[in-house]
Design a protein that fits this description.
GO terms for molecular function: heme binding; metal ion binding; oxidoreductase activity, acting on single donors with incorporation of molecular oxygen, incorporation of two atoms of oxygen; peroxidase activity. The chain is mainly alpha-helical. The protein has 27 helices and 6 strands. The protein has one domain: Myeloperoxidase, subunit C (Orthogonal Bundle), CATH 1.10.640.10. The radius of gyration is 24 Å and the shape is globular. Bound molecules: protoporphyrin IX containing FE. The site of protoporphyrin IX containing FE has 21 residues, from helix 6 and helix 18.
Length: 633
């Protein structure tokens, strides 16, 4: 494109455009996107124009922000031989049976950081103490509740975790902050670097969970994990009589993933075990000839798709509460013609019209599916967690007009994690914890809002056993991003074609925050750690996360759907069974799932439209203007 146009591009983005060797059309799209960015305009546009912007932006990221790590390791196969989700996530991608299986490389959304700063520059404990540690609890108002916080941990435990080394590192707090650090020093295992055998990204890291949206947080990530959770009768999973997860002789829950669990996560695992078992009952009734294995396989497909759907058209639209995102997420699932059209005519005219789900074949945009380092980094959302769980009394109270159950007690979060958390959960019960979490606002993703109790946390290993070394989580998270060569904030933005900041005032209007940023990073905005930048960034109205994090979501949320054979080519009655597919197609929200297992609970205790907003929030008002014709929210 001529020099006339390039003069208008932010100087630091010119290099990125040149490095990416963009095609003519893409350069044009980039100009449009960049022009809108310069005016800070996209989220203020009417829905239809906002959607066009997001479509252009996503297209650019699909072309320039998918970096494969490690290359192809597997082989082609006949997909008909594997009409089910395997225990370790292999045999999903038709071209390579290993793609997305346990132990494969994390991909990247950009090259590893070129930052000149060292691993300890500045010391992670200084960053954590001065910029992350919670001062006064900031919550999310009525928008997002503690179920929503637990939900995203439930998803993280489905998607990602890094393989560690066996040798440890130690971080010590320097004198300037040591008095404010509950741990003067702490030890942890390094992330294990593995040679990729490729010349572009030479070292990579392995994902110990299956990155597909396959419900591995309840089904396990390999054969032994799967065997542990199954009853091998009628396809069902183990669940205890009180409806919670079974607990083994060591006091550890029996579930697909038990690392760093707390009661909120175990509750969601239990709820979806119940969902799986209910699907098994339904299938057995309709298809009495199916054996245990067949029932298990179909029920897993159905339950995993329900989870993916709840996340896409319920959780995400509460996280990013604007009409444009409401439209965008529904388009991802149903297409622009909407649910009624798709229910009537099936998947026709491609993804724009009918959504990703049910596409003829999976689409990976030329890069084998994986989740990425940058994806993990933007999901560092521990600030969502409160200091205490506020327990509500649902037994003695009768339903009040405002549907708010009386407060029972506040339980410190430390009492709700690990084995102690399991014991406490068994006293509380599934229904009570769901209602309690439903009525409690989650923490806001903001500076100075990292849970205090996580500064001396007892982590659990993959077997659910307490680790001997306590960790300072916010410091550890700063170290992790640097260790895995994830770009720092400004480089991250540039690589996502977002306008970088040139001074602290570009990041935030808060003078106190700017003062603290200067104290830690001086005037060097390039040094700013990603997690701090994501927490400090001015937010778009209605967004509970930063715009920078959102751009990774925009790319990866679609990818999780469109790259998966079981949500595209095999999302059909033959693979799921007719009744199984109907189950997915008639479940629209977490509320539907809760209602199925606790028929009275939401009627009695929930006023809000979504189970992810605080339950006493007023329901969404009917808006008579058709969604696509609405002005900006
Ligand atoms: C009580 C609840 C939770 C506890 C006890 C917990 C604890 C932990 C621990 C100990 C780690 C490993 C740190 C390391 O060695 O690098 C971790 C990683 C992580 N957690 Fe949490 N967490 C909780 C909830 C959440 C929530 C609500 C989110 C929200 C998205 C979340 C997202 C993550 C992510 C993205 C990682 C990085 C995974 C990786 O390195 O691959 N966690 N968490």
């Amino acid at each position: 494109m001529g020099s006339l146009f390039s003069a208008f591009i932010h100087p630091e983005l010119r290099d990125i455009v040149a490095r990416n060797k963009m095609s003519f059309l893409d350069t044009l799209l980039f100009y449009v996107v960049h022009f809108v960015d310069k005016l800070g305009l996209w989220h203020r546009l009417p829905v239809i124009l906002g959607l066009a912007y997001l479509g252009f932006r996503r297209h650019l990221h699909q072309s320039y922000n998918l970096v494969g790590v490690g290359g192809s390791k597997g082989h082609e196969y006949d997909t008909q031989d594997f009409p089910y989700r395997t225990a370790a996530g292999n045999y999903n991608d038709p071209d390579d049976n290993t793609v997305g299986s346990q132990g494969t490389f994390f991909g990247r959304n950009m090259s590893p950081s070129t930052s000149p700063y060292g691993l300890m520059d500045p010391n992670p404990t200084v960053v954590a103490t001065k910029l992350l540690a919670r001062k006064d609890y900031i919550d999310n108002g009525k928008q997002f509740n503690v179920i929503a916080a637990s939900w995203i941990q439930f998803m993280i435990h489905d998607w990602v975790d890094h393989l560690e080394e066996t040798n440890q590192v130690e971080i010590s707090a320097p004198e300037e902050v040591v008095n404010q650090c509950p741990l003067k020093s702490f030890r942890f295992f390094k992330t294990k670097p593995v040679p990729t055998g490729s010349s572009d990204v030479k070292t990579g890291y392995l994902n110990t969970r299956t990155p597909w949206w396959d419900g591995s947080a309840i089904y396990g990530n390999n054969k032994s994990g799967m065997t542990r959770v199954r009853t091998f009768k009628d396809g069902k999973l183990k669940v205890s009589e009180d409806g919670l997860l079974e607990v083994d002789e060591k006091g550890i829950p029996v579930s697909g993933d038990v690392k760093n669990v707390w009661a909120g996560l175990s509750a969601l695992q239990a709820l979806f075990v119940k969902e799986h078992n209910a699907v098994c009952d339904m299938l057995k009734k309709n298809y009495p000839h199916l054996d245990d294995e067949e029932l298990y396989r179909h029920a897993r497909l159905v339950t995993a798709a329900v989870i993916a759907k709840v996340h896409t058209i319920d959780w995400t639209i509460e996280l990013l509460k604007t009409d444009t995102l409401l439209a965008g997420m529904r388009i991802n699932w149903y297409g622009i013609m909407g649910k009624k059209f798709k229910d009537t005519f099936g998947h026709v005219f491609g993804s724009l019209f009918s959504g990703f789900v049910g596409l003829d074949k999976p689409e990976d945009h030329g890069v084998s599916y994986s989740l990425t380092e940058e994806f993990v980094s933007v999901y560092r959302m521990h600030a969502l967690l409160p200091e205490e769980l506020v327990l509500r009394d649902i037994k003695s109270a009768t339903a009040s007009k405002d549907k708010i159950p009386p407060l029972l007690k506040e339980v410190p979060m430390k009492e709700m994690i690990g084995k102690k958390g399991s014991q406490n959960l068994s006293k509380i019960g599934l229904e009570q914890i769901m209602v309690s979490m439903g009525h409690q606002s989650s923490g806001a993703i903001s500076i100075w809002n990292y849970p205090s109790w996580m500064r001396d946390l007892v982590p659990q290993d993959a077997n659910g056993e307490d680790r001997p070394d306590l960790v300072d989580m916010p410091s550890l998270e700063i170290y992790r991003d640097r260790e895995r060569e994830v770009a720092r904030y400004n480089e991250f933005r540039r690589n996502l074609l977002l306008i970088p900041i040139s001074k602290w005032e570009d990041l935030t209007d808060d003078k106190e925050v700017i003062k603290a940023l200067r104290e830690v990073y001086g005037s060097d905005v390039e040094k700013l750690d990603l997690l701090v930048g994501l927490s400090a960034e001015k937010k778009i109205k209605g967004f509970a996360i930063s715009e920078t994090a959102f751009v990774i979501f925009l790319l990866m949320a679609s990818r999780r759907l469109e790259a998966d054979r079981f949500l595209t080519a095999n999302f059909n009655a033959e693979t799921y069974t007719k009744k199984g597919l109907e189950w997915v197609n008639t479940t629209e929200s977490l509320k539907n799932v809760i209602d199925r297992h606790f028929p009275d609970t939401t009627r009695k205790w929930m006023s809000s439209s979504s189970a992810f907003s605080v339950w006493d929030a007023p329901p969404n008002q009917k808006n008579w203007i058709p969604l696509y014709l609405r002005p900006a929210t």
